[in-house]
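Q: A small favour: would you put together sequence and structure tokens for a protein?
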Amino acid sequence: MKKFWEKHSLGKILSIVLVLAVILSWVIPVGSFNGSEFVDQGLLRIGIADFGNMLYYVIAMAIDKVLFLLALGAFYGILTKVPAYQRIVTTIAKKLKGKEILFTVLVSLFLTVFTAFSSSAYASLIFVPFVINILASMKLDKMTVLVSTFGSILIGTLGTIFGTEGLYWLNYYLANNAAVDFMKDGVIYRVVILVVGILLFNFFTITHMKKSLKNKNNEIIEDVYEVNEVKDKVRTWPMIVVLSIVALFTILGFIRWNESFGIEIFDNFHTWLTELTIGKDQTIFAYILGNSGAALGSSDFSLFTMISVLFFLGLIVAIMSRLDFGKILSSVSEGIKKIGKPVLALSVAYTIFTVFYLSPMMNTIVNTLMPVDGKPNINIDYNGSGIAYFNIDSDDDGKADKNLVNTKDNCKVNCDTNNDGYPDKNLDFDGNGKVDENDEEILDSFTEQSITNLDIDGDGLPDVNVDTDFSIAGATIASIVSSIFHLDLNYTAYSLSSYMVTGFGANLSILFIIFLTMYGFAQFVVPTSAILIIGLTYSNVEYKNWLKYIWKFLVGMFVCLLVIYLLMFYL
């Protein structure tokens, strides 16, 4: 058994998790949510004939990531064959001799902060091969390289501010159901989590590096793309320009400037450029960019856009370096081959996710771990019709204190003339027996934002909302379990958002933070974590060795997160 785990432990664990996911589909029934009500739909077993269908969904879900990784591999496959690039890498490594810790911390800080603001965590991978080339030339150990690059990206995912796909889609689905922008609502807590994560993570990084630099027997990183020292004189400035263009496209393209900060300059520039005409009506720049040309920082600027950038810049580098066609093909082929293991591991992780996509057992699991207890205390449905009466929680204690439905004859205020269970005119919100300007102001406040009394359809009246006893422990466990089998937080948000809103309306802010940060936390350890498995296979570090290194950080970070959750709940 010991020999079984000595090599390729990650691949074996992924295979076991895949088999486990299929077995669970034979044991755990699937279900759906009708508001806060769980509807059991029985078993939906995954069988042999389903694997072809699963392959289709794996391709559909992972195609942008896979093609991006292949393009990135091809790009650096070309770069590492160019003397100018080799000179840049080795020169930087020499100048940083004796400053290994400072450089590593600065690299870690950059990747963490960029990821925290980037619309895609995968975008940060663009910088990783270049950084690893330098760290390998500095003869640093494998764990230091893995931690300072891929580990830093995971910190940015954990403490995301306005970045990552997970934050965007979790906010999108919850905001659509709750009419509250959680992206900005809990930003202070996310900043605190990011800062705590950076400090704690780099404490362990620096501690490890001090020991590693003194130990000459450490396992040195073997550079995926070998970079040799160049003694001949070569011009480096064209390569510096190319690398700068890649960095600018990445930073400017994957940060949502307008949506996050209200900066419209890139949207305005894109509009001006694509509408600029030459001659009579020829928008030549729009033609050059193509139909998929997107403004920097827009939601349309995607990994597919970056694939095009890497393709053309790689071609330019090859032409500038006078590589013959055969050399170009061999460099591209070698680069793609070296990224093959990460692509394969990622595909297996998406296969596991696809099992839960085709057989949505997670709804059943979450309903068990984080149940709605059936004892509503706001927007109470007194007659059991499934339609809540109009209840006002005026003292913000999470419990309804006024029921404003009046069906009596000669009604003066809060009149329900059509007997639909809602007051439809003369709403006396403050309960003083008359309708005045104060009531209109209260109505406006409920229309603009409301947690306890949710107006989802925008008619000015709160819809059905059940507020139940909320368990931090239950939500934490549910979010971790969902993160094991749902590779993308996007799908968790899609499948559970209506349940969260209708079942835990008064606690949505903390629930949002828990699911977001626990997803980021789980990515450090679960074998289905995309960034982690790419990092482990790319740097050739065994999964068990990673766990031995990271567990102390995880314990400390978990305690910090629980403290933050409790402060959010009780303050």
User: Anything to note?
Assistant: The first helix runs from residue 9 to 24. DSSP finds 23 helices and four strands in the chain.
